[in-house]
User: Fold this.
Amino acid sequence: MPDAPEQRDRHQTVTSETIEVLKNRRSIRKYADDPVTDAMVEVILEAAFRAPTSSNLQAYSVIQVRDPDTRAKLAAVGGNQQHIIDCPLFLAFCADLTRIEAAFQKNGHDLSDNNMELGLVATIDAALVGMSTYLAADSLGIRGVMIGAMRNDPEAVAEILGLPDRVYVVFGMCLGYPAEAPKQKPRMPKSGMIHHERYDLEAALAAMAAYDPDLRAHYDAIGKDTTDDSWSHDVHAKFSKRPRDHLRAALKKRGFDFT
Ligand SMILES: Cc1cc2nc3c(=O)[nH]c(=O)nc-3n(C[C@H](O)[C@H](O)[C@H](O)COP(=O)(O)O)c2cc1C
Assistant:
């Protein structure tokens, strides 16, 4: 006798092409020589710009960087990450308040007293366009990695890319056809990341405790040095030093008042 619809649903694995793409995603830092053409970039970005945007502000810009000298300068700011130089295409995703300021000026104002909300809105907009770009590129077989190290020195990056006031690079992105197939990095158990109706703190902390040995096993498998409490150790080691502590002051100089 055929299953009732509810039973059929339970038996079927729910999936789709998009879900499989997302489930297989991993950062790629080594690239084949095959070019990522301007025509491809145009199509990818046109699709990515359909990302949702707060109040239709479209508070982002994307800079394509192909010039090797510019890449070398950006890599120097970004902790000398070789993939910034080697990737066929580097994109800088900017939070951009210039057009919003122009709209203000038409109405007799400027953005000299902009606030945290506007900075966040532009930053979120840039991030959404960035992830959409990543996925649009993936659909053409192009993979890559995001580069937060562009925030190491927002003023130096602005100088290199000729950014006007009220624009900063939220992150960069190296893109190209992959020349490596790294093992996927595990994620924390979703039992502690997905909550039902109310936040479950016990489950959240249990997920973290379960993750340390998982990440350690992953790093052991790929021959990367780690500690027993891999994730909690790394997070503490990196973030207890207050990395990029100058960021708020640097972004204020760029015209973003995160206060
Ligand atoms: C905003 C952002 C900035 C990142 N910056 C860097 C970076 O500067 N260099 C790098 O090698 N990876 C960078 N990554 C990649 C993360 O390290 C990577 O996504 C994370 O370790 C998980 O690995 P996976 O992407 O392979 O799953 C960044 C990721 C994000 C989302």
About this structure: The chain has two domains: 20-182, 183-259. The longest strand covers residues 167-176. Residues 26-27, 29, 81, 145-149, 171, 185 surround flavin mononucleotide (CB under 6 Å). The mean pLDDT is 95.
